[in-house]
Amino acid sequence: MLKIHKYKTHLNILMIWLLMILVLVLVVYSINILTSFPTYAASSTSKTLSDISTMQEMTQTICAKSKVGDTNTLTDTRDGETYTVRKHEDGNCWMTQNLRLVAPEGGKVLTPKDSDIEEEHVMPQTLTSLQPGDFTYEHTDREESYYKEDTLSTFGAYYSFNTATAGHGSIDMLVADKTVTTSICPKGWKLPSSANNTSYANLMKVSGILSNQDGVNKVLAAPYNFMLSGSAYAGVLHDQSESGFYFTNTIYDNPDIYVLYLSREFGIVHPTATQYMAGFAGRSIRCVALGGIATDSNLSVEVYPALMIDAVSNLHQIIDSSMVNTGTISTTITANTNYQVLLSSNDSTMRNPKLDSADDRTIPTISATTPTILTPGTSAWGIATGSPDGSSGNSTYVGITTTPQSYYNTTSLGAYPSQTIHTYGIGVTISPLLPSGIYSTSITVTAVGV
Questions:
Q1: Which residue, of 257, 295, 361, 445, is most buried by count of CB atoms within 10 Å of its CB?
Q2: How does residue 61 score in pLDDT terms, banded at 50, 70 and 90?
Q3: Alpha-carbon distance values, 265 to 7, 130, 155, 223 (Å)
């Protein structure tokens, strides 16, 4: 809670003091956890998969609170295409149709508000006819995509790895065992990984899908509905209805990446196949949304009147209302595997419930996409982009969004039993005209296995 007290002196100057930010956190979730950790929530949302209508509304909390087998048809706000999604047996929510996002002439602008990216990206025009030079090794930096009008609704579109990763998969960017964290999946969704909870390997294992003819038949049937969509290479569309190739976000060793490979002819379901395709072969995309455990907890900032700006005494503890006031939030994670900490907020604006919602009576969060230097004398707050102690710089800040995002100091290697404390710097600036009172918001702190 942010408490602001106003006192009148002979100079009629506003007196303000900022104290520390406190936060409660939840325990990490991973498919490889050896011991179950209980989770306690201060507050939570009750939304499940059935309560949303767009792909972009999906959050880890929503997927986590849905039941295995729950399905819904959601609209991708970027183009109006609809996809049936299901919470599968691995605890995650999956598309049960191939992605069919296409770009018109001039390209398609993707933003962090609608796509799995951190900054605006223009997806180049999608091909409707293939030429001999398309999707070849000689053009590993190309962002290429292709679709056939008569099979788009069935097989989806075909993408190069550089397109699938929103321009982060060109051959000179690929490093062995690297995970590419951006994609053209909708916001709240991502490309599957090659291992752990969000992988095709884990999905096939927990769903009882084996690499044989029965396994192929099962993965092609409801409720999974994978397609033998073939691939585009060297200007030709190959093997429709015979094989299928689905991108992961993981590099095996440049220029090989991990893919899910399906073959009807050979009875193969290979969720960790590696193929010499970095940047060029047109493959299919299925997107996954994290499930696992996610809860809400309260974040508050409180300003006490004990230490304040006093125009008369000029106490050395005084913090000028024109300065950037800083504090920290800390979260302790117990884990036995790699994990990532994500932060989000359903309403990131700090509000005083005793006041109206006029702009000058709230403390809004700043831009979530562009690191910003807080401007003294204005009401704003954000999360530091560097270490809280300043060793890596924390003069710039970013805002928090409704979708769980990673921030500075969020990934760690756990070794059971171990505890790691993650600390995040917070910066707050306030207008000298901000009324006295308690200002607060609520933040979701989530830990997930990766």
A1: 257
A2: confident
A3: 80, 26, 18, 22
Which of these, 298, 341, 419, lies nearest to 23 by C-alpha position? 298
Q: In angstroms, what CA-CA distances link 158 with 83, 102, 132, 188, 302? A: 17, 9, 16, 21, 52
Q: Residue 389's pLDDT band (boundaries 50, 70, 90)?
A: low
Q: Which residues of 121-145 are buried (b: 16+ CB within 10 A; e: fewer)?
A: bebbbbbeebeeebbbeebbebbbb
- Quick one: tokens of 237? 């569309």
Tell me, yes or no, if the pTM score tops 0.90.
no
Give me the half-sphere count of Cα atoms (radius 13 Å) on the Cβ side of residue 415: 0
For residue 338, how many other CB atoms are within 10 A of its CB?
17
Partners of 208 in the β-ladder? none
Burial category of 376 from C-beta neighbours within 10 Å (exposed 0-12, middle 13-18, buried 19 and up): middle
Coil, strand or helix at 351? strand
For residues 359 and 282, give the distance between their C-alpha atoms in angstroms, rounded to a whole number: 49
Check residue 126 and report its DSSP letter: P
